[in-house]
Amino acid sequence: MARKKRRKSPPSPAQPPREEPFRAPFKDLKSDWKRVNSDAPAKPPPTPLTPYEKARRAEQERRQRVAAVRQQREAEQELAAFRHAMSDVEPLAPDPRGQVGKSRRTNRAPLPSDEEISLAAFQDFVEGRSAFTIQFTDEYMEGSAPGVDPHVVQRLHHGDFAIQGQLDLHGYTVEEAKNLLDRFLNRAYSGGLRCVRLIHGRGKNSPDNRPVLKEHVQMWLSQGRLSRLVLAFVTAPVRDGGAGAAYVLLRRAGKPRSK
């Protein structure tokens, strides 16, 4: 019996060349990262804080809150002082011609610098011409404006007035301390504060152990612009800084001393 011949199937059409898939070198990165993290040892629980560390952290947080409140209060006081100073200012009437007049220049003598004022004031003090009544030694200083009752200075030295503000001048140069004191006393005066404390140090770290800042603070408070804001100043009692600090009694806001 003859075998049937198989039909040859027609040739299949040529397949187009297969395109290589897009290379994604980072597609397994996420799974590898999970696997590495799962193999990593678990973190130990945090060590509980000691009572000292807890108290120290609480004190740091308290200081940060106090500093934030103080900055906000100072900003509000500066804004209030600016608004008070500008309250009676009236804008100039516009020129109907639309012109702005030129300012007249006058030949004025240059104003003396703060250093010149301080040196002249110290010379007045040495020669007995100081407007303030001054007592000054390495351990004690006292100053009062004309007309201030000595009993008020005694009460100030004994701490009978509530301290409403404080400025620490430790670690600053004379120029930096002058700028800080100027801003501080002007803000305190504008804010209606009456009694503040200044920490100037005893001068133990200065050359020849001289209380340099203390000497300058005495001059700044009793001479020049700042003296218009001050009624009296005196070394603080030992419990509140002693020879390294001073109490300052300010005038009432709006009644600076006229020269």
From TrEMBL:
InterPro entries: Smr_dom, Smr_dom_sf. Residues 1-112 are annotated as: Disordered. Gene3D superfamilies: 3.30.1370.110. Residues 167-251 form the Smr domain. PROSITE patterns: SMR. Residues 17-37, 53-64 have a biased composition (Basic and acidic residues). SUPFAM superfamilies: SMR domain-like. It comes from the Bacteria. Pfam families: Smr. This is Smr domain-containing protein.
